[in-house]
Write a structure and sequence with these properties.
5-stranded parallel beta sheet; globular; alpha/beta; 27% helix; 3-stranded antiparallel beta sheet; 9 helices
């Protein structure tokens, strides 16, 4: 998890363990969910495949491996980041090259011997590149325009500041106004800051954005490495200024900022810059795609529920179709949406909407 333990809690719970700023592993988080289910006796249907959602005869019909369910209201909580994205030209890469998505990566030992190309320097790409480098692998990282967050700042975990200061409560509309789109979340190491500079100091070879496969089979890269690194630096400084302003306004007695080694180390670059790579000469035997995710809603047979890209049409999780709701969508309402910190207020809001629109009219 990228949130600290003190924030990785379920509604009504609080963390009381010995490591509030530590990070949960996958198995620990699964155990947390199972414990919550058990204590609250929730009617979970495990190992159930849902194949279709339709609307007929005034109700929704859900076809599953355990039979058919009907309901006036349906909350789709499968999220919007469960289907990995690859560029169309990924199929042009040689068949002998091992290709996996970030969601399929487990550890360095699972990849064939040889160098690894990691495509995308967002959350997953940066963390995977770091782990591979620390495992002694030769790593090429195709960077992208992604922000960065320091892990700690002025005596606290950065996520504690972001929540307390209201940074995570900024509305989706304002995020789009500022960035022109919904941006990828800034790179945040689970235990320490990860920067492009720090990765280069580990020996990771930094490249520009991966742009395609040339006619002769060489891989091509844009010349935007320095711009991508500068964007990450600037985004980190912007967040720090936001927190500094909040500390000043709130009159908080916080310690002064200390230099972060990941942000002060110089970035190492090849000279000249690499614009293309020959797979055989570079020794690359595998590619890890960290190009983002989208939601898979192909099982929903509901005209008007999805846009032309197959993603939900909604306002704060309330769909365009009566009785249909979406929970857990990234940036659905605010910066907080889609992460564990929204798990308390978002469901309550949706349930309140369902209750308000399910009341029978007075006689």
């Amino acid at each position: 998890m990228n949130t600290p333990n003190v924030q990785t809690v379920m509604p009504g719970d609080r963390y009381d363990g010995p490591d509030p700023e530590g990070a949960m592993t996958r198995d620990e988080f699964v155990a947390l969910l199972e414990d919550f289910v058990g204590r609250n006796v929730l009617p979970i249907e495990p190992d159930t495949d849902v194949s279709e959602l339709m609307h007929e005869h005034g109700a929704y019909r859900l076809a599953s491996s355990r039979g058919t369910f009907r309901a006036r209201n349906v909350i789709v909580a499968s999220g919007s980041l469960n289907c990995p994205v690859r560029p169309a030209w990924a199929t042009a890469l040689p068949p002998a090259l091992r290709q996996i998505d970030a969601s399929g990566y487990r550890n360095a030992q699972d990849l064939p011997e040889g160098a690894v190309l990691v495509v995308g320097s967002g959350q997953s790409g940066a963390q995977i590149a770091e782990e591979l480098a620390e495992a002694g692998r030769t790593v090429f990282l195709a960077t992208s325009r992604v922000g960065r967050l320091p892990r700690r700042y002025r005596g606290r975990d950065i996520m504690v500041w972001l929540l307390e200061s209201g940074f995570l409560d900024v509305r989706r509309e304002e995020v789009i106004r500022l960035a022109g789109r919904i941006p990828p979340r800034g790179v945040l190491g689970s235990l320490r800051t990860i920067s492009l500079q720090a990765l280069s100091a580990l020996g990771v070879v930094l490249l520009g954005r991966f742009t395609g496969v040339e006619d002769d089979g060489r891989l091509s890269f844009a010349g935007d490495l320095e711009a991508n690194a500068r964007f990450a630096d600037e985004s980190s400084e912007n967040v720090k200024r936001y927190i500094d302003d909040y500390i000043s306004r709130a009159g908080i007695d916080a310690p002064a900022a200390e230099p972060d080694p990941a942000e002060t180390v110089a970035m190492r670059q090849t000279n000249p810059a690499i614009g293309s790579l020959d797979l055989s000469l570079s020794g690359i035997t595998s590619v890890v795609w960290c190009a983002g995710f989208r939601g898979d809603f192909s099982w929903m047979r509901l005209p008007g529920a999805l846009d032309s890209a197959g993603q939900p049409v909604h306002a704060d999780g309330v769909a365009a179709l009566p009785g249909l709701y979406f929970a857990g969508l990234d940036f659905a309402s605010t910066r907080k949406s889609g992460i564990i910190l929204a798990v308390a207020d978002e469901p309550a809001r949706l349930v309140e909407h369902i209750a308000a629109h399910s009341r029978l009219p007075a006689a």
